[in-house]
Amino acid sequence: xxxxxxxxxxxxxxxxxxxxxxxxxxxxxxxxxxxxxxxxxxxxxxxxxxxxxxxxxxxxxxxxxxxxxxxxxxxxxxxxxxxxxxxxxxxxxxxxxxxxxxxxxxxxxxxxxxxxxxxxxxxxxxxxxxxxxxxxxxxxxxxxxxxxxxxxxxxxxxxxxxxxxxxxxxxxxxxxxxxxxxxxxxxxxxxxxxxxxxxxxxxxxxxxxxxxxxxxxxxxxxxxxxxxxxxxxxxxxxxxxxxxxxxxxxxxxxxxxxxxxxxxxxxxxxxxxxxxxxxxxxxxxxxxxxxxxxxxxxxxxxxxxxxxxxxxxx
Length: 314
Fold this sequence. Notes:
Blueprint: H1 2-29, E1 36-46, E2 53-61, E3 69-76, E4 80-87, E5 93-95, E6 98-103, E7 106-113, E8 117-124, E9 128-130, E10 133-140, E11 145-154, E12 159-165, E13 172-173, E14 179-188, E15 194-202, H2 222-264, H3 277-281, E16 288-289, E17 296-297
Parallel strand pairs: 1-11
Antiparallel strand pairs: 1-2, 2-8, 3-7, 4-5, 4-8, 6-7, 9-10, 10-15, 11-14, 12-15, 13-14, 16-17
C-alpha cells in the first residue's frame, strides 16, 4: 500500500513538473522583452568628432520598471562603444560598467542600470565615403518595446543636400549653429526593428566639433561622482559644525559685552539726608539752647520761648 502511494506521488510530481516547465521557460525567454522603453531618442551625428557616425541612445524606462534592472543592447559588431552611463536626477551622467560580446553581425552591450534614465554612445564606422558623397544606414534591432521613438539627425558642418529616408521634415538650426532634422516615429513593439538611411554631400574633411566653441559634456567619471557624493555626505556635518561655532561664539561675545557694561557703570552714590534750609544757612556757633527743654533760643532771648525757663548765658 505504501509503495503504491509513493509511486502515485511520484507520478503526480512528474506531471506537475512537465506542465510547469513550458510555462516557466517562455517566461524566462521573455524576461528581456518585458522591459519597456518609455522613450528612446536616437541621435545620429555624422562626422561630428570622428570620420564616422556618433550614435547616441537616450533611454527612459517605463514608470513600472523594477530597479536596478539589466539591459542588453545590440549594436553593429564593427561599432566602438564610447560611453554607457546612467542619467542622474540632476541631469548629470555617471559611467557604469558594461560588457561587449560579439555575436555575428551584432555586438551585445550588457550593463545594469539603477536609474530610469540611461545613455549609450557608440561610433558606427559604416559611413560610406565616395568623393564628396556620403551615405549611411542606421538600424534599430528591436530588442525592447518602445512607447515613443524619436529620431534626430545632425547635419555635418559644411554639408549640403542632406536627404533621409524616411523623411524627417525641414531642418532647424540649433544653438550650436548646426542644422538638426527631427521626427517622432511613434511606438514599436518588441522584435520590430527600424531603419533609416541618409545621404549628403560634403567638401573637405573638417569635423563638426572643430567649428564649435563649446564642446558637449561627456559622462562624468566615477572619481568625480564619488567626490561629489562625499561632499554631499560631509556637507550636513559641516553646516552643523558651523552652526555650533556661531552659537558658541555668539555666547562668548554676549558674555564679554555684558561684562564690559558692568565695568563701565559708575558706582551708586549714597544719598545724604535732607537738611533743613534754615539750619544749613545758619551756623550753630553763638546760639543758646534751653537747659530744660533743649529748644534753641533766638539771639537776645533771656527766657525759653517754649517752656519759659530762664536761659543761661554761655
